[in-house]
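Board notes (copied after class):
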Amino acid sequence: MAQVAKSPKEYDVCIIGSGAAGGMAAKVLTEGGLSVVMLEAGPPLNPEKDYKMLMWPYDLPHRGIGVGGKLRGEVISEFLAPNGAWTIEGEPYTSAPGSEFWWFRSRIVGGRTNHWGRIALRFAPIDFRSRSRDGLGDDWPITYEDLAPYYDRVEAYIGVFGTKENISSAPDGVFLPPPKPRCSDLVIKRSCDRLGIPCVPARIAVLTKSLNGRLPCHYCGQCGRGCTTASNFSSSQVLIPPAMDTGRLTLITNAMARELLLGKDGKVKAVSYVDKTTRSEKQIHARAFVVGASACESARLLLNSKSSVFPDGLANSSGYVGKCLMDSVGSDGYGYFPQMQQIPPHNHDGVGTLHMYVPWWKYDRKNDFPRGYHIELGGGRGMPHVGMFDGVCNEYEGYGAGLKKLCRSMYGTFIGLSGRGEMLPNDDTYCEIDPTTVDEWGIPVLRFHFRWGEAEIKQAKDMQETFRAIVEAAGGEYLSRSGPDGKYPYGIREGGRIIHEVGVARMGGNPKASVLNGFCQAHDVKNLFVTDGACLVTNPDKNPTLTIMALTWRASEYLLDQAKKGGL
């Protein structure tokens, strides 16, 4: 066996992952005075070079869909910030027979915060106590009141636009002014008003005013490609730079964590990782470890960290590492709005995501499914792309000049609605180590099991019924065809497709039914913290990133306090 290189020093904290969790931990811990080393599995990021904010579709061969349209319907990497994909060469994952799960991963500094939609919604007070209300799942070991001060801090620091609406299912926050609604937003807003459905400004982590030296958004609409002005939030531009400025953060890139090594005292003593550049094995020693590699990668690391003390994986005496996997329930629809044809083509000013949304509004009544969902809106005359012309060609026949004329007349007349709802954990949905498959670094990969339950199917049905009602109340024609039959009833998306996978190392008050305590600290190993989406107990209809950052800030302050007291 080749000799393993050890770190020349013992750091106070080692952070694994550089996204929302890792970046926030690095900021708080370094500013608190600790020496920190961060491992990132991907390369460094240079926004000026790597982001593609001002690239036009016509600058790419075949408008970015590849020869023969091979990338049609998939993530088009040329149109996104770098190194995020459903498939990574040499790093596979598997799905168990009868299951289908899509896993979006990032390999670059900042992780998936380079790629997310920046929808920043607080969990509501009831989301932490949902079992107490309906008897399903589990309550959190912390309350909204415990986390609210950290939501305040995160929003004030990263910048989130929105408006105060006093809706109990969607708590208000510390908001910047929102951008004006688009024409398509106003069409949906008026329809929702007729139906008694709230439609309010979205809460988005994009600056509309200067903040902490960052410029406001200039409305190029290309957020998904990365923002060279750092007007939209990413860990790589907003959290890691101030941590680096302290002089107490060491960032090691192209470092693929393989295993956490347990010391004789029952604490983690080191992480063993593969230096992807030299293909050599190295170790980093630290007094405490914060795992924030993204939920399923974090579960994979724990499950692969086996020892005589933890034969089923590190900190897994409960058997809950990998269990309780949840993604958001997703179903989409769209409608044709003839009145939009009368609107002259105009500059589609705005951020590169939604301006308005529908928060969960039926929280105060009895529904035929538990929990709830919100609705995201999209429409208008953004940059034409292949998907828009595909849609017209699928709906209408023709070719040549006639089809081009039709495309131009229909452009901007469609509005999409996307439901994002809460999934309940079930025993058939989890991830585990595949017994036979390894990646190119020799590290065993994950195997996914996934099943939507009856509650999620009923929720998707309600989404489709609501979409149709909103479209038709606005005088539009609902075009989606999502019935109860087929592989995906009511248009429910495949597992993982919404990219909100959480829950695989959840916190809880009972060590026999959870992995972490309320400060994201492992019950079994007190110098180990997991602060990414793996720690979530439930997966409400809110996008999880804001909550991940708030939980990490809170856990990092606790870690700082324990370090000062010598408790780690």
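Comment from the instructor: The chain has a mean pLDDT of 93. The chain is about 25% helix and 15% strand.
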